[in-house]
Amino acid sequence: MRNHGKSGYSNDFTLNHVAADIENFMKSQNISKAVFVAHSMNSRAIMALALTKPELVEKIVIEDMIVTDDPDTPKRAKQIFDFFRIVDKYIKAIPAHLPESEAHKMILPLIKKFFPENVENFSSANMTLSVPIYKDESGKFSWEINMEALFEFEKNQERFNIDLSKNPTFLGEALFLTGKRSYVQLR
């Protein structure tokens, strides 16, 4: 997904761009139809592709994505972006001599502060939380996400809304998943 991991970074970051990236990748690999498993933000792109180009999508599995207008979404989004802004400052100040494991330990108190319910759930399951950072070739710590594009996304989140005005339909199989410890809960 653009702006994530080692994928290309671009300030053009809308649902349509990401869905087009998926379609272009499929064409470049001669994939005529696929089964998709998607998580979080990428789930919206897969749902949009399934609704606008159903001939490309056999089945979808959507994990941890709010698919309705949830009144808590703006509050949750603000919490996440406030967290990202503070962690962004921390990352820029992490000394280059520290190993990645120590850098993650430095950020753990911030995760605990912003998302105490998640930390408690992960701790009870003997799991660890981390943020998507890595040490680049120069030894500097960087995000595995294009934060500039993500902060721009925050200002204009409706760019990731799915247009349902023409009543699109996906007739393939769809499975929506949420974990016991997920912030997304089915009602």
Give descriptors for this structure.
187 residues; alpha/beta; 6 helices; 43% helix; hydrolase; AB_hydrolase_1; sn-1-specific diacylglycerol lipase ABHD11; carboxylic ester hydrolase activity; AB_hydrolase_fold
Overall average residue pLDDT: 82
Secondary-structure element string = HEHEHHHEEHE
Structural class: alpha/beta
Give a quick account of the main beta sheet: strands, pairing sense, barrel closure.
Answer: 3 strands, parallel
Strand content: 5-15%
Q: Stretches where pLDDT falls below 50 for ≥5 residues?
A: none
**What general form does the structure show?**
globular
The helicity comes to: 40-55%
Widest sheet: strand ordering: 1-2-5
Q: Radius of gyration, Cα only, in angstroms?
A: 18 Å
Number of strands: 5
Q: How many helices in DSSP terms?
A: 6
Question: Kindly, what is the distance between the CA atoms of the first and last residues, rounded to a whole number of angstroms?
Answer: 29 Å
InterPro entries: AB_hydrolase_1 (IPR000073), AB_hydrolase_fold (IPR029058)
Domain AB hydrolase-1: 1-72
Family: Belongs to the AB hydrolase superfamily.
EC number: 3.1.1.116
